[in-house]
Specification:
The complex is a heterodimer of chains A (308) and B (302). Chain A has 308 residues and is mainly alpha-helical. Chain A contains twelve helices and two strands, in the order ααββαααααααααα. Chain A is 74% helix and 1% strand. The longest helix of chain A is centred in the N-terminal third of the chain and has 41 residues. The chains are: A mainly alpha (308), B mainly alpha (302).
Chain lengths: 308, 302
């Protein structure tokens, strides 16, 4: 066992150097694992101490979120924040799902190369615009000039409709690009078979290619939803900061991410209940997006396996 | 013309009966819907740029670029400290993210055995990190870097590290694609001539993929300088009247300054936000032009 046979090469300086390089590169790869562990550790530590003060049931099922109040008025029910997040995301997805899917189908099945060369960069630029710019646009243009003046809707200065629609615009490029990728991965033979049976291009796209790419399309939608759920600044600027359980889109709402950014300004004392709320809400947001992300990663792997 | 087009044309001309009027009407309707969808993105981008230019251009001047923000008089206010802060953050972020991102990408593409569970875990972990909300990175920065284990305070260094962790997955994913685009024959040729694995990577694979990697790095950095949420959470300074003077200095950044101005009740300050957005967009445009230049100048065709 311990005896060295003549077949085993003795390590030379060069092979030792190769080993060191390999170890260094592996070390770099470990940083990303360490990042995840550090995120979980940070969130968990304060979340546990939060639940030392507030019962888990009160947090998960409480319908009043008023951490800023004192005494009896103070309440830590997370439902209004989760509801606000999902409500705003739903408004965004009502815009982004049809527009994103139709754009993706167009890019994958219909656009000529020259048209694609123009449209792809437009989507890339839209995807690269910092979200604060979208927030500014929602606050100073979409709410006053489009919703109030052009459409005559009587909205609050901070409202779910404006923030939600602009949130939808933000995720259109994400959905369109991923739908395009999923549909382009469908083999050409399926399209030819469909055309051979007499289907026209639209019929082929809708009845053959789209269903064949469905798992990828669902992954695109899930990832789009996950982006919308985690988006902070648009909602912080244009959606307002009012936790609310309602269906009225003209009113102000608060999301989980917006609450975190509004509350944490760096000078909250460590260990205060206010400090802990940032982490417990962060944990809720992290778990929610983690579930969606893992689901979408799995779906993408599935469609890759089928066609590659 | 693709095979499908030819087949469809042949089918229409010969065997298959003509598509019914209803089918054709639906086709036209569906095409119109798709054009409309593309139009939404186009319209959104144009209106957004118009809005920012309309509000911002009148406020843009040399004084605006070289003054500190004032809380009282909009006309005396400027973005000098925000520009310096953003440049500082970008340098710190680049210094961390370039070696780490490229090293991880090389490991995953050239060394990692994908049948081993830990390598698959690294891979899924990076995909997931890429989709973690940026505000959560802010929490990490606050609890782990500004306070807690690293305790760096609300400094340029802490901000830069936070942003670096945020965009690291982007760099890794793009760098991996660039490395994968180098054909295996190049590696095999190098190894056959007696080069070691690292010599092959250093002399053949990296030079062949550097254009793609550089594009990815610039893409990631332009994402980093546009991020607001993580810097808000870790507590960047609001409207400081000083420039950062080192890694341990307090700082602000363009997005933070823009955010602060949008929160002001005075409409003149809100317009300054648009001017600062223009400054940020010009910076982003410059970076993207460099990326496009690098891609066109150095891209390898195999």
């Amino acid at each position: 066992m311990g005896r060295r046979t003549s077949l085993v090469r003795r390590p030379t300086p060069r092979s030792r150097f190769e080993g060191v390089i390999r170890a260094l590169l592996f070390g770099a790869a470990i940083v990303s694992i360490a990042t995840t562990l550090a995120i979980v550790f940070s969130l968990l530590r304060e979340t546990i101490s939060f639940f030392g003060d507030v019962p888990v049931g009160d947090f998960l099922f409480g319908t009043k979120w008023t951490p800023q109040f004192a005494g009896d008025q103070q309440s830590f029910g997370v439902i209004p924040l989760v509801y606000g997040t999902l409500y705003l995301t739903a408004i965004g997805l009502i815009v982004a799902i049809p527009v994103g899917i139709l754009s993706g189908i167009y890019l994958s099945e219909f656009a000529r190369p020259r048209v694609r060369k123009v449209i792809k960069p437009i989507l890339e630029v839209l995807a690269g615009v910092p979200t604060i710019v979208f927030g500014y646009f929602a606050l100073t243009f979409f709410t006053p000039e489009v919703l109030r003046n052009a459409l005559g809707i009587d909205v609050n200065q901070f409202n779910a409709l404006s923030a939600g629609i602009i949130l939808g615009i933000l995720v259109i490029p994400t959905i369109a690009t991923l739908v395009e990728d999923a549909m382009s991965a469908v083999p050409q033979s399926l399209r030819e078979g469909s055309a051979g049976l007499g289907a026209n291009k639209v019929q082929t796209a809708i009845r053959i290619v789209f269903p064949a790419a469905l798992s990828g399309v669902v992954a695109a939608l899930v990832l789009g939803a996950s982006r919308a759920i985690g988006e902070t600044v648009i909602i912080l600027i244009a959606g307002g900061q009012q936790p609310r359980l309602s269906l009225d889109p003209t009113e102000s709402y608060q999301s989980m991410a917006a609450f975190i950014a509004a509350t944490s300004r760096g000078d909250i004392p460590t260990g205060s209940i206010e400090y802990e709320t940032i982490f417990v809400v962060g944990m809720t947001l992290f778990v929610l997006t983690l579930i969606l992300n893992l689901f979408s990663i799995r779906l993408v792997r599935k469609y890759r396996q089928v066609y590659e | 013309m693709t095979g499908a087009d030819i087949a469809a044309r042949a089918a229409r001309q010969a065997v298959i009966p003509q598509a019914s009027g209803a089918d054709r009407a639906f086709s036209g309707f569906f095409r119109a819907l798709m054009y409309g969808a593309i139009g939404v993105s186009l319209l959104a981008l144009v209106t957004l740029l118009y809005d920012v230019a309309r509000d911002g251009l009148p406020n843009l001047s040399w004084d605006f670029l070289t003054s500190f923000p004032s809380r009282i008089i909009p006309a005396n206010s400027g973005v000098e400290s925000a520009i310096y802060g953003t440049l500082y953050l970008m340098v710190v972020c680049a210094v961390i993210v370039i070696p780490l991102g490229i090293a991880t990408a090389i490991y995953l593409e050239e060394y990692a055995d994908r049948t081993k569970w830990w390598n698959r875990m690294v891979e899924v972990n990076i995909q997931n990190l890429a989709a973690v909300p940026s505000v959560v990175y802010g929490i990490l920065g606050l609890a782990f870097i500004v306070r807690g284990p690293l305790s760096l305070g609300r400094t340029v260094l802490a901000g830069g590290i936070t942003l670096a962790l945020l965009v690291l997955p982007v760099v890794i994913i793009v760098a991996r694609e660039a490395i994968r685009a180098v054909p295996p024959s190049i590696r095999e040729g190098s190894l056959a001539l007696g080069a070691t694995q690292w010599q092959t990577i250093w002399k053949q694979v990296l030079p062949g993929s550097i254009a793609g990697i550089a594009t990815g790095v610039i893409l990631a950095l332009s994402r980093a300088i546009g991020e607001t949420a993580p810097l808000l959470v870790i507590g960047a300074a609001v409207s400081p009247r000083f420039n950062p003077d080192g890694l341990g200095s307090a700082f602000t950044a363009l997005p933070i300054q823009i955010f602060a101005w949008t929160q002001d009740a005075n409409r003149e300050f809100v317009d300054l936000a648009a001017a600062a957005i223009l400054v940020m967009m010009v910076l982003l445009l410059l970076m993207n032009s460099v990326a496009i230049f690098l891609r066109n100048r150095y891209e390898q065709k195999w």
